[in-house]
Design brief:
The complex is a heterodimer. By secondary structure, chain A is an alpha/beta fold. Chain A has helices spanning about 115-125, 160-165, 170-180, 225-235, 245-260, 290-295, 340-345, 355-360, 370-380, 380-385, 400-405, 410-425; strands at about 25, 30-35, 45, 50-55, 60, 70, 75-85, 90-95, 130, 145-150, 185-190, 210-215, 240-245, 265-270, 280-285, 300-305, 315, 325-330. The chains are: A alpha/beta, B mainly alpha.
């Protein structure tokens, strides 16, 4: 068992009504399929508007990798398909409508690596994977250097993945061992201290022994952020990408391997200062956020975010990998400042970052924080790569950006740098 | 949407709060003359900040109050208004404002101004500090350390190294009040001191080492004079200390992960 410095990081507090441990099932009437943030992928549609589809039925495929599907998260009627120029996916809206039985996949070939990949891609699970560097789902034939299973989430108001895994120990173990077939490297299970989440003894004999490793970390954010864990344990590089997957999705993979059906609900926490009560619900990916917050939101203007208060973005639908919904009061638009005050306080360049202890802690002591922020701000790609940029995504620097008052625009700087590096190395 | 508080303006406000005990005590003992010096320094710095605001859209930061306090406290005594204005202008413009304002400067403007005054007008006596100033410096360090605005590593390593030097008989105890005031006002500046963990410890130790060296080998110099000289050299070396710390960190990660 590997241990980290448990005292690093911060505990940002956001007001929210108390949330009990009870979970309720809530399938929203509407849901939508959207791509992850970033450049939308080109897709080939499998259904037309108005079609009735069972849960798990492919709705669209990636044009570049036809095995990778976007599937229906519930039995539904396809209400609206919106594509951008070049047949890029914008959103596909579905109305919940009970219909045929859930789609069952052929699992006879899942014992082989190729069969497992095809099963994950056809069932819609592939797009729940995230690769680093650069983010997004991995290419269909990529072999990662390591896989990180995130069985903890230190983001404020996040649901505890251990709750999601309660009663799912067997499928989780099955899913974990399946993941070891996708890589020659280790599979890390990142968790907070507690009872063992899986049986360390390999089901498949010595081949996987030692590659499945539990890694404990402390409770403060961002100790449980995937990027910081990857940075500490197995840094992603251009040659050796690293994948991450949520522990609940691994349990769903285990269920898929046993039954041929991919469960489509996930544990989602609904919190925030604009709510009358917080909730833990089991809902589908792409769920309608207004449906989820209906009747529990306080009267008055508010904004609903997909994601945590740190990295969430105003949205209509739950993002593909998100497990949090945050409702915040909409700040009242104040009177614009006097033109002279505005002229005297507005700067030509972004205000500089002053090194301080909160900034140091916002990278959980994993990075030389001030130096890294300066490198990001100055656009020094090579030094940033040396410091571990390729292991990080926007969510990993969200806390530092929050701490600095949003003046530094760190997620935007990081994304611009990653895009620049990707373009440069693709050429 | 929701934002944290650690912006440049919050930090400068906390720094002003940290230095308040030092300022109050110094003004209490200094009387009207101290108030005049502080007022003059603040006025000159404000005007230069205003000029750069109008010319280059650099918003004014309250940090000029801290610079004014440092210059007023540590500048040689008996200097005329013109000499003070000249030194402060040189320090503010070439130490801070041409780099883009507070937060983008590489050396502390007060350190530059004091060094200019020391080299330019060597005939004037440097001030002396009594024990109460040292106690106020400790209070400033504690407030800055607790709020996270002053680098604890710099202050701690300098304190430990100075304690060792005093115990070894190299550094006279009488130099400690001046060295302490210079440490919290100039050396522990969060912008111009080292920013890495190892760099900060080296930064503080280097400052204490230079103070000790000058105390031993610089005959005729007063504690404030050699502490300011040590602060100038330390701030010039601080980026190299960070580079050294980063090189060590890269090497450690290469050993762990085989080249990243």
């Amino acid at each position: 068992m590997i241990n980290f410095a448990f005292r690093s990081g911060l505990t940002p507090r956001f007001s929210s009504p108390a949330c009990g441990p009870q979970q309720t099932d809530m399938i929203t009437t509407k849901a939508a399929l959207r791509a992850s943030p970033g450049k939308p992928p080109r897709v080939t549609l499998e259904v037309d508007e108005g079609a009735l589809v069972p849960q798990g039925a492919p709705i669209a495929r990636l044009r570049a990798s036809p095995d990778v599907c976007f599937v229906a998260p519930m039995p539904a009627r396809v209400a609206r398909i919106t594509l951008l120029q070049g047949r890029r996916l914008s959103e596909i809206v579905l109305f919940h409508e009970p219909g045929p039985d859930d789609l069952r996949h052929d699992i006879s070939q899942a014992d082989t690596e190729g069969g497992l990949r095809r099963l994950m891609q056809n069932s819609g699970l592939w797009i729940w994977l995230e690769r680093r560097p650069f983010g997004g789902p991995p290419p269909p034939d990529e072999r990662p250097g390591a896989i990180f299973v995130m069985a903890s989430d230190t983001a404020p108001l996040a649901p505890d993945p251990r709750l999601a895994l309660a009663g799912q120990e067997e499928p989780f173990g099955r899913g974990l061992h399946a993941l070891t077939r996708l890589t020659d490297g280790p599979v890390f299970v990142c968790q907070q201290p507690g009872p063992a989440l899986f049986d360390g003894a390999s089901r498949d004999g010595a081949a996987h022994a030692g590659r499945l490793r539990a890694v404990d970390h402390g409770p403060r954010h961002p100790q449980g952020a995937p990027g910081l864990r990857i940075h500490a344990l197995f840094p992603a590089t251009l040659e050796t990408p690293v994948w991450t997957i949520h522990a609940e999705d691994v349990a769903h993979l285990g269920t898929l391997l046993a039954t041929g059906t991919l469960p489509m609900t996930r544990l989602v926490s609904i919190g925030g200062a604009a709510l009358r009560e917080a909730r833990l619900v089991r809902t589908q990916p792409g769920a309608d956020l207004r449906g989820l917050t209906h009747r529990i939101v306080q009267p008055g203007p508010h904004v609903v975010l997909s994601g945590s208060p740190l990295d969430g973005h105003p949205a209509h639908w739950l993002a593909p990998r998100h497990r949090q919904v945050t409702a915040l009061p909409r700040p009242a638009k104040g009177k614009p400042p006097h033109w002279l005050v505005a002229a005297l306080t507005r700067s030509a360049a972004p205000k500089p970052v002053i090194p301080n202890a909160a900034l140091d802690q916002s990278f959980a002591a994993g990075l030389p924080a001030a130096a890294f922020v300066r490198v990001l701000a100055s656009g020094n790609d090579e030094t940033a790569m040396k410091m571990g940029l390729l292991s990080l995504l926007e969510d990993d620097v969200a806390l530092a950006d929050y701490v600095l008052g949003g003046d530094a625009h760190l997620p935007d700087l990081l994304r611009a740098m990653l895009d620049r590096i990707r373009t440069e190395f693709a050429a | 949407m929701i934002r944290g508080i650690w912006t440049r303006e919050t930090i400068v406000l906390l720094l002003v709060a940290a230095y308040l005990p030092l300022a109050v005590l110094w003004l209490w003992f200094g009387g009207g003359e101290a108030v005049q010096r502080l007022g003059l320094a603040a006025l000159v710095l404000f005007l230069w900040n205003l000029a750069f605001l109008l010319a280059r859209a650099q918003p004014i930061s309250l940090s000029f109050v801290i610079t004014a306090l440092a210059v007023a406290m540590l500048a040689p005594e008996g200097l005329g208004a013109f000499q003070l204005v000249l030194g402060i202008s040189f320090g503010a413009v070439f130490g801070e404002l041409v780099f883009g304002g507070w937060g983008r400067n590489v050396v502390n403007p007060a350190t530059v101004a004091l060094s200019f005054l020391g080299f330019g007008f060597p005939g004037y006596d440097w001030p002396d500090f009594l024990a109460p100033a040292a106690w106020a410096a400790i209070a400033a360090a504690l407030i800055g350390g607790v709020t996270g605005t002053l680098p604890v590593g710099v202050i701690a390593s300098a304190t430990l190294a100075a304690a060792g030097a005093v115990a070894a008989g190299l550094l006279p105890a009488a130099a400690l009040p001046a060295a302490g005031v210079v440490l919290v006002l100039l050396v522990a500046d969060p912008v111009t001191s080292a920013t890495t963990l190892l760099g900060r410890w080296l930064n503080g130790a280097l400052y204490a080492g230079l103070v000790t060296l000058f105390a031993v080998g610089w005959h005729g110099a007063t504690p404030v004079q050699y502490a300011v000289a040590a602060a100038l050299l330390t701030s010039l070396v601080a980026p190299a200390l960070d580079e050294l710390a980063l090189a060590v960190w890269y090497a450690k990660r290469r050993r762990q992960h085989g080249g990243t």
